[in-house]
Amino acid sequence: MTYINHNQLKLSYKGERDWIEQIGGPVCVRDSNGNFHNMFFIPPQMYYIDIPPSGGLLKTHFHKADAKPTGTEGVDFVRETLGGFCVDLFQNSHPLADAMICAVDSKVDNKQFTCQRLAYDSDTNWGSPKAAVHFLTGGSKNECKEVATFNTTTGELTFATTFTNVTVGDMILISTKGWADSSVTTQPAVGTTISRSKAFRSPWCYMDLADAKTVCAARGSGFHLLMNHEWWDIAVWCILNGYVPLGNNDGSLGPSIPPRDYEVNSVEFLIDPIARQQNNTYNRSLTGTGGPRTGHNLSLSGIFDLNGNIWEWVDGLFLNNGIIYVSRKPNAVYPTDYINTGLAIGNGGIVVSGQTIKSIRKENILLKHGIPHESAVNSSEYNYDRIYYDVTNIRGARRGGSWSNASEAGIFTLYLHYASSSRHSHIGFRSSLVL
């Protein structure tokens, strides 16, 4: 967590504003008397902050800037050097998913209290989605519960069961999952519901491959579920530039250990309360909350969370009884739009499921698909990332790994082990756009 003095914001209530860049996760602001009054999160984009008159809690909230700095809307390198597509910066969320960090403003008891920030965020639809609250500080730190009811006018939150010890001033993280059904495993009707790419959101999980494709395509012409060869283009860019992004992949279980990188524990993420409310050991994180080192290009203009957090479905690659089928057509229909390569994933026994990737196949038909040619027990050639597969029946493709995979997660990791109908709390997706 980063602490800054109120005068470091260089803003005033009279309408002046300035740019503040993310410095890595939550920020707590200290007033002129030295007291820490409020905490907020600056996503990996540039925003400005309105500061109200002095006195009381800082009722700070965010608005999108009038004009965003170059590079925050898309991925320029993809268009310029790889050609043809633009990738979402964040794992996709439901259109009603949202989150905020704020302080307890008043208290009735340990299951009913008020958060005034809730009434100040006009960009958020808090009327329908189920929400969860995670305590960041105080006597209830690391406790998480689903919100039973809340009043968007007063900011009053009520819970079915009590927290241990709620105190005015305690910092809490509120997150919505995007739909009203109380079951975490039941999806809303997909229909024309669209996905969106935003930082500081609960990723949309429990989606199978078909539903992920549907909600991506619903965004408009050219939008589609990120394809395997597009993912691999990004991975190759990382290889050529000598950098592999960090990620939420530590493998530790909550609630006392925060989401973090396996190799660099100091790189931490904000917990996703929706996952933690479901199971207090789940360390799934909110999108894009790990800071610049978790972007593909080590910057705030990067593509975030390609390493860990949740497995991401990719289109354009299937296994059918161990035989590789590929396509480069967006929103391709299997098997109509796919090429049967006639090549086996095991490659004559030199690719073993569960091992690290040693080399990549170079047959013309598989170029730019990132399919392993050889594996080994402990190869560093692709950052110790792994290949998993099952040669029975039809298997869909996922990339990246999840929060629980430790060193096995990574930008080069490929998972061809389960059917494309699989759904889980650690499976999600992101969109891509044909230019």
Q: How does this structure look, described?
A:
By secondary structure, this protein is mainly β. It is globular. The longest helix is centred in the middle third of the chain and has 13 residues, at 228-240. A hairpin with a 2-residue loop joins strand 15 and strand 16. It has 3 domains: 2-70, no CATH class; 77-96 and 184-435, no CATH class; 98-176, Elongation Factor Tu (Ef-tu), domain 3 (Beta Barrel), CATH 2.40.30. Helix content is 8%, strand content 27%.
Describe how the helices and strands are arranged.
Elements (H helix, E strand, L loop, with lengths): L1 E4 L20 E5 L5 E6 L5 E3 L12 E3 L11 H7 L2 E3 L10 E6 L2 E4 L2 E3 L16 E5 L8 E8 L4 E4 L11 E6 L32 H9 L5 E3 L2 H13 L32 H6 L32 E10 L2 E4 L12 E6 L11 E5 L11 E5 L10 E3 L4 E7 L9 E7 L10 E2 L2 E4 L1
Parallel strand pairs: 1-2, 15-23, 20-22
Antiparallel strand pairs: 2-3, 4-5, 6-24, 7-13, 8-9, 9-12, 10-11, 10-13, 11-12, 14-24, 15-16, 15-21, 16-17, 18-19, 21-22
